[in-house]
Design brief:
The complex is a heterodimer of chains A (308) and B (247). Chain A has a single domain, classed as Alpha-Beta Barrel (TIM Barrel), CATH 3.20.20.70. Helices cover 33% and strands 19% of the residues of chain A. Chain A has 10 helices and 16 strands. In chain A, the strands form 4 sheets. Chain A has an 8-stranded parallel β-barrel, surrounded by 8 helices. In chain A, strand 12 and strand 13 form a beta hairpin. The radius of gyration of chain A is 18 Å and the shape is globular. The two termini of chain A are 35 Å apart. Chain B has 247 residues and is α/β, with parallel strands linked by helices. Chain B folds into 2 domains: 73 residues, Elongation Factor Tu (Ef-tu), domain 3, CATH 2.40.30.10; 155 residues, Rossmann fold (3-Layer(aba) Sandwich), CATH 3.40.50.80. Chain B is built from 7 helices and 17 strands. In chain B, the strands form 4 sheets. Chain B has a 7-stranded mixed beta sheet with strand order 10-9-8-7-11-12-15, sandwiched between helices. A 6-stranded antiparallel beta sheet of chain B has the order 1-2-5-4-3-6. Chain B has a two-stranded antiparallel ribbon with strand order 13-14. In chain B, helix 4 packs parallel to helix 5. Chain B starts with a strand and ends with a strand. The chains are: A alpha/beta (308), B alpha/beta (247). At the A-B interface, helix 1 and helix 9 of A face strand 4 of B.
Chain lengths: 308, 247
């Protein structure tokens, strides 16, 4: 059995398969459930300063096999009440990463400090939600703002800081470089890809918010390209996200440069059992490929070819 | 079809097969999208909507011919195997019990129903339940029809009077908790159809988290044995932000 453990942000994770932010992470019991189902780490819903209801429905549109469009609108219970949920997950022994979003560096820093106080092992900064004005990628598409936010958060907390990067930018790696230069400990990439669905009979967008973000198998090649390019330009670890369902998806991301990955849409399509199923599948696939430790092959595709 | 002063059934042709207990997401363009249990699972399918919030009120006043979106069906179904079933419906909760009782009766199960409402005109599907039940008893808070008091009193008495293999219930959680405790005394298993805020209906967004479960994919029908250990059951739900708020 290949060794799936992976070490980054000062922690050795039992496997590289994390629950992505926004899936299951609004309640502590769900985080606990994902951990108990075998996730290597669990990332919370993105938490803000105040409770936020999110957008009205429809908030999701699904496609048969290749993905899903969503514009939830960053619903979350707010940092005041959320620590009780983290407490539930932590009491189950879960490796919890706390995700936060803010409107500016100051708000990010304040939230980060409060999130760190809950005992999470690292923070993930949501610099990439594609559908909330002035938040997420509203900030994360500007390398200067990314730098400013990461710097402010790093000053405010002692725990490791992961910057989650948007794919909706012509030079994604420049955003990762900005985060690294400000002291980020890791990069997650990618968040959803800006997208739209229209109902032809009603002649209107299906999502209440109009634009949304695409996730699922359709965006795997985009995520891979982003991770590839980021790996070429930064030294800090990368967490790959986007369309992962099968062992080879994970291995592709690892070969492109990821040290861990996150699953989101696959949980909706395949159920929470995907964590244990995929860990087993991954281990068997690595055995067949004669790879003893997953960490051996991080960035492994870069040595044989160098597409720009 | 107007069922009660506050409740209307909408029927529609929608091909995907559905079973009793399942729900669909009904999209009112420009307004919202709401989870609704199917009150008719054959053809045409139907949902029975009670005027509760803004969207359901507006939905009930939509002009005929308005296009709405439907996705689903989602969720699990009632197990139709029990031979002697007590169906306990509170208010619009009867909407989901009726198609399940009809399906079970058609397979040969014997149905006894206890239906409650605040007042007589708000009693839902009494005739529909009578058509397939051995006995239907009603209760109203104001005593305008049937037992003057709660439907839980009626169901407790019915449980004492005759044996059942299962109790099905849908209604306010406080009511369902009382139904469960009465059935527990007789060791009759209870199945509850649960309601929570829903957004994705795909087991992803966590809006409908209830203890370790998601109502959209693990439910909406739960054996009571799964619900009673959950501290939130009968006490709190989550609002759109995920905050715990009193029921």
């Amino acid at each position: 059995m290949a060794d799936l453990r992976t070490t980054l942000v000062g922690h050795t994770f039992r496997n590289p398969l994390w629950l992505a932010s926004g899936i299951w992470g609004e309640s502590g019991n769900s985080l606990k459930g994902a951990w108990e189902a075998g996730a290597g780490g669990v990332v919370t819903k993105s938490i803000g300063s105040q409770p936020r209801m999110g957008y009205p429905n429809p908030t999701v549109v699904t496609y048969e096999k290749w993905g899903m469009l969503n514009a939830m609108g960053l619903p979350n219970p707010g940092i005041e009440e959320y620590p009780q949920e983290i407490g539930i997950a932590r009491s189950a022994g879960a490796a919890v990463i706390g995700s936060v979003f803010g409107a500016d560096a100051e708000e990010f820093a304040q939230l980060a400090a409060r999130m760190a106080a809950t005992g999470v092992l690292a923070l993930e900064l949501n610099l990439s939600c594609p559908h909330a004005k002035g938040l997420g990628s509203g900030i994360g598409q500007d390398p200067d703002q990314v730098r400013e936010v990461v710097r402010a958060v790093k000053r405010a907390v002692k725990i490791p800081v992961i910057a989650k990067i948007t794919p909706n930018h012509y030079d994604v790696a420049s955003l990762a470089q900005a985060a690294e230069s400000a002291g980020a400990d890791a990069i997650s990439a990618i968040n959803t890809v800006r997208a739209l669905a229209i109902d032809v009979r009603l002649r209107r967008p299906v999502l209440a918010h109009g634009l949304g973000g695409l996730s699922g198998p359709a965006i795997k090649p985009i995520g891979l390209a982003c991770v590839w390019q980021i790996y070429e330009r930064v030294r800090i670890p990368i967490i790959g996200i986007g369309g992962i369902e099968h062992a080879d998806d994970v291995i592709e991301y690892v070969l492109a440069g990821a040290r861990a990955v996150q699953l989101g849409t696959a949980v909706a399509f395949r159920g929470i059992g995907i964590f244990s199923g995929l860990a087993k599948e991954l281990s068997e696939r690595l055995d067949a490929l004669k790879v003893h430790r997953l960490e051996e092959i991080v960035g492994g595709a870069h040595t044989t070819a160098t597409p720009q | 079809m107007v069922e009660t002063p506050n409740t209307v059934t909408l029927r529609f042709r929608y091909a995907p097969p559905a079973g009793p207990g399942q729900f669909v997401m009904i999209w009112i363009p420009g307004d919202d999208e709401l989870p609704m249990s199917l009150s008719y699972t054959g053809d045409p399918k139907g949902v029975t909507i009670k005027a509760m919030g803004d969207t359901s009120r507006r939905t009930l006043s939509l002009p005929v011919g308005t296009l709405v979106g439907i996705r689903g069906p989602y969720g699990n179904q009632f197990d139709l195997d029990p031979r002697r079933i007590l169906a306990v419906g509170g208010g619009s909760g009867t909407a989901v019990l009726a198609p399940a009782a009809e399906a079970a009766a058609q397979r040969g199960s014997r149905i006894v129903a206890a239906l409650g409402a605040t007042t007589a005109p708000e009693l839902l599907f009494v005739d529909r339940m009578k058509a397939i039940s051995e006995k239907v008893e009603v209760a109203t808070d104001d005593g305008s029809r049937g037992h003057h008091g709660f439907v839980t009193d009626v169901s407790r008495r019915l449980l004492a009077e005759q044996p059942f293999d299962a109790v099905w219930t849908c209604g306010p959680e406080v009511m369902m908790k009382k139904v469960i405790s009465a059935a527990d005394e007789r060791r009759v298993p209870v199945f509850c159809s649960m309601e929570r805020q829903m957004k994705c209906a795909l087991g992803m967004c966590d809006a409908c988290a209830l203890g370790p479960y998601h109502v959209c994919t693990d439910g909406p029908v739960f054996p009571a044995s799964r619900l009673t250990p959950i501290a939130e059951f009968g006490r709190t739900k989550r609002d759109s932000s995920g905050r715990r708020v009193p029921l």
